[in-house]
Here is the input.
Amino acid sequence: MGAEGLVPSLLCTFGSWYNSSGQAQRHHQMASRSNSSQSVMELFAREWRVFLPPRQQTGALQVCPVLGFLAVVLVVPPILTKVFSSPLLRQETRYLLLGNTLLSDLLFMFIYLLSTCFNAAGVATSEWSCATLLFLLGIFYSAGLLSAMAMVLDTSLAVLAPLRYLALWPVSRTRWAIAAVWAASVVFPAGTVAGFLWHHSADPCASQVCSLPVLLALTVGYSVPMRASMLLTVAGVLLVLLLVLFGYVFLCCRTRRSGVWRGERASRARGTFFIHYFHLLLSICPMLVLAVELLLYARPSRSVELRAHLLASLVLCNVLLVLPKALAPYLYGLRYRDLDLCRTLLTFYRLKRPATVTPLTKS
Here is the structure.
């Protein structure tokens, strides 16, 4: 936020929050009643200085999306190449859903890194460009979320109806399900982005700070329609995540009765469910934090609280949202460790040398 080209746009956005949140009227009354020499502009400058967090904190938090993107881009492309180039893997539903999930995570991390780089370079975008970036982020995040829900449905059918699994869930229906996931992902963030465009249609700032943490702190914080649409979106995301969680809990209870948790298969079953629960926990945490933050915006905030909201939004977007996306390929790689995915990664990065066979000679 210290770039020269970004400060005027950020200052304009902060001025819009200052006027709409009631701080300007309160300071005007304070300046008119008191006999001090502080003017309204001096009180505004003090609010601005208190609002800006230290550069060390923001700089450290801006590195997290870069590290998350590197963690994803080093692993996901070889896995996707292996899944989509292998005729055998393309005929299995779980690998198609896994590839769709990892592809959406990779695209989400790329768009979010692009937005972070724009902000670090001081590039202020127009409202339509910013809305496009936010819309793409919403599409790719929703696609990963709905793909995880489809993976639960696939696992449930494989466990509950193993003899009718191929008839109920063939590969052709899997491709239609993936198309439906992307179609629903387009509709899911449309309401929030439409609220963003409606709100900024009358904004005096010609260029926008297209930073999701700043928008959460300065725009969603004082706009009641945007806060309501964001709360509805977060409630929908939490509902999907809770359905996924309850699906795995139900599968856990059913598989315990069938003997999957006894014998040599017990360790693999526990590991698989642990991986799913851990990934779901990482996905639910940012949504819960965002819901609490949106509820806290309902009451008027002072300047010190606004800085706390900004830091919380930075941690939420740059750490909590990025962490499950960065860990997903490694967690699912552990799940499929006995198949070709892990071996493909080791071969791709030359970490596994081919075994040499030494011929036996007769003495």
Q: What stands out?
A: The chain is about 75% helix and 0% strand.
